[in-house]
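[step 3/7] inverse_fold.run input=structure_tokens len=335
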């Protein structure tokens, strides 16, 4: 039995996207929480919690996109053609957010509000666009031959817009619990108070998506609710309930680390549910990862490089978080 190279590359890309969602999600969430914190020094602390690591987090987005281009060129071409507008908006958001990181700390007090707004709106646009892309991907993309057969605005549906809102809530919760872990005093208390409302909103979003998706897509309903799949996948919603209870309990006892770690687990469970729904399609609803894969020679050649570069990315990511571990205060920070 030979090595299933398309499956290996699918796992690598899924891992890269998951790392991006987890690691860039909380700093995008911090940007969206800025309007709720008016004190400029508190905002400095919020940015300083992620300033040393935010650009490294986006390495996973670049790696995932490059891997998709090389390993699944058909999927890359179709997805970019179908979702060119929201992906472009996402890039503009990431640019404004990235520029704001550096320019805000150099601006005069009178001009600082400009970069605060760039940080807020850049974070919001990037997150909402990612959610729209996710919703449009779940809805599926028509393909004829090896070309996208839909229109430029097929992604603009109520479901994709709702997914955009849902991802905004998810990233805001990640940012909120990150700040609970990384800050103290009045700022930490504000984030503690925000965690439970954000969590309940996210759970409501997950319930709606979990009902909406199988109603709109019979194949997804069959995947989840036929036997024995129902019994096999039942642990996912049960674990969502357990993890959510753990977050609420952690907030009530003023825990510092557990709310963030459990929120990461909640995001992973949501990601797992998405994988269950679309497997094995790389271009829903009908093109599988094997149909979209590049030739085996290309996949094998790329895999050698990937097995070299992924450990390097993991090591410097771990090292950067280790170096900048601990609480961030008003008196010390990255800038």
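[step 3/7] decode complete -> sequence:
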């Amino acid at each position: 039995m030979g090595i299933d190279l398309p499956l290996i590359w699918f796992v690598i890309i899924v891992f890269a996207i998951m790392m991006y969602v987890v690691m860039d999600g909380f700093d995008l969430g911090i940007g969206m929480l800025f309007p709720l914190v008016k004190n400029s020094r508190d905002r400095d602390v919020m940015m300083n919690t992620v300033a040393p690591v935010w650009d490294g987090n986006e390495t996973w987005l670049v790696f995932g996109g490059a891997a998709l281009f090389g390993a699944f060129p058909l999927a890359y071409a179709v997805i970019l053609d179908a979702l060119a507008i929201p992906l472009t908006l996402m890039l503009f958001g990431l640019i404004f957010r990235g520029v704001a990181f550096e320019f805000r700390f150099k601006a005069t007090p009178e001009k600082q509000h400009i970069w605060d707004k760039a940080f807020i709106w850049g974070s919001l646009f990037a997150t909402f666009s990612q959610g729209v892309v996710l919703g449009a991907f779940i809805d599926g993309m028509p393909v004829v031959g090896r070309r996208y057969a839909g229109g430029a605005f097929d992604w603009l549906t109520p479901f994709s817009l709702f997914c955009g809102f849902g991802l905004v809530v998810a990233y805001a919760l990640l940012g909120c619990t990150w700040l609970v872990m990384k800050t103290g005093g009045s700022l930490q208390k504000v984030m503690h108070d925000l965690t439970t409302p954000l969590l309940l909103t996210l759970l409501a979003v997950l319930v709606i998506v979990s009902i909406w998706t199988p109603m709109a897509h019979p194949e997804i309903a069959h995947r989840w609710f036929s036997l024995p799949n129902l019994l096999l996948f039942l642990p996912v919603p049960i674990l969502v309930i357990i993890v959510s209870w753990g977050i609420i309990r952690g907030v009530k006892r003023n825990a510092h680390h557990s709310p963030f770690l459990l929120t990461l687990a909640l995001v992973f469970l949501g990601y797992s549910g998405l994988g269950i729904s679309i497997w094995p399609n790389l271009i829903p609803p009908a093109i599988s990862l094997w149909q979209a894969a590049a030739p085996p020679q290309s996949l094998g050649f790329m895999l050698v490089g990937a097995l070299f570069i992924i450990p390097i990315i993991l090591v410097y990511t771990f090292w950067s978080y280790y170096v900048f571990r601990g609480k961030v205060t008003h008196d010390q920070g990255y800038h």
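[step 4/7] annotate
Residues 5-323 form a domain with the Formate dehydrogenase/DMSO reductase fold fold (CATH 1.20.1630).
The chain has 15 helices and four strands.
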